[in-house]
Structure formats: C-alpha cells, structure tokens
C-alpha cells in the first residue's frame, strides 16, 4: 500500500523545513544540502524523497548530480488552511465573548 503524502507531512519535520529553507534561495545539489546540516547524505536523501512525494521539490539529473529545486507555491495550501482556521476561530471567540458579556450583564 502506498502512503499518500501531503504538504503538512513535508513541513512537519524540522529537517525537511531546513531543506526547504536552504532551497528557497536557489537550486542546490544534494551535496550542497548535506553541507553544514550535520546529517548524512543517506539521511538527507530520505527527507528529499518525502519532499518529492509531497511535490514540494523537484529533482533533476544533471550529469552525475541531482539538482533540487523547491516549489514554494505548494505552501499556498498551508496558507489557505491557516487563514480558514483563523477565520473560524475568530468567529467562535467573538461569539464566546458576546455570550460572556450578555451573561455578565444579565446577572448584575
């Protein structure tokens, strides 16, 4: 059974967020991503596989190197979810506030 991956899995892990951050400046090969990460090439490759399955990055073979590019537009799904959640909770909290004000004034 193939596990369906989504953007939230991509950003759930701090290592993957670090990789996204590094790639947001420019396309890099895997060796450049490994540099200064403190993680093995094999470990980075596993994270890149998840990011690729989430369609957060593209990997292109150029000679002997694989070049990674980030697809930041994929984060729009997260932005949309946050905005909808914010709207929902703001409405709920406004209703709660109104209820508490009405309850307080009726008891006085």
UniProtKB/TrEMBL annotation:
PROSITE patterns: HTH_ARSR_2. GO terms for molecular function: DNA-binding transcription factor activity. SMART domains: HTH_ARSR. InterPro entries: ArsR-like_HTH, HTH_ArsR_DNA-bd_dom, WH-like_DNA-bd_sf, WH_DNA-bd_sf. Residues 1-90 form the HTH arsR-type domain. PANTHER family: TRANSCRIPTIONAL REGULATORY PROTEIN. This is Transcriptional regulator. It comes from Chryseobacterium lactis.
């Amino acid at each position: 059974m193939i596990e369906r991956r989504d953007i939230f899995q991509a950003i759930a892990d701090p290592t993957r967020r670090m990789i996204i951050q590094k790639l947001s400046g420019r396309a890099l090969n895997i060796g450049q991503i490994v540099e200064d990460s403190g993680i093995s090439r094999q470990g980075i490759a596993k994270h890149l596989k998840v990011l690729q399955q989430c369609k957060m990055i593209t990997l292109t073979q150029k000679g002997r190197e694989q070049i990674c590019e980030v697809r930041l537009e994929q984060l729009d799904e997260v932005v949309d979810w946050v905005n909808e959640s914010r709207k929902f909770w703001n409405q709920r909290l406004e209703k709660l506030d109104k209820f508490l004000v009405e309850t307080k004034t009726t008891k006085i």
